[in-house]
Amino acid sequence: MSTVLVLVASMALSMLVIKLRLLFAGRGLDLPGHRSLHQTPVPHGGGLGVIVVALVAGWWYGLDAMWLVGVAVLASVSLLDDWVHLPFWLRLGVHLGVAASVVFLHGLDVNPVTIGVVVVIAWAINAYNFMDGADGLAGSMAVTGFGAYAVAFSIGGFAELAGLCFALSAAALGFLVFNWHPAKIFMGDVGSIPLGFLAGGLGWYGVVADAWPLWFPLTVFAPFLLDASATLTRRACRRERVWEAHRDHYYQRMVRMGCTHAAMCSRWLALMLGSAVLALALHGGDAHAGWVGAAAWWCVLMMLGRQVDRRWDQDQVRIK
Question: Where along the chain do its domains lie?
Answer without folding.
Answer: 3-319
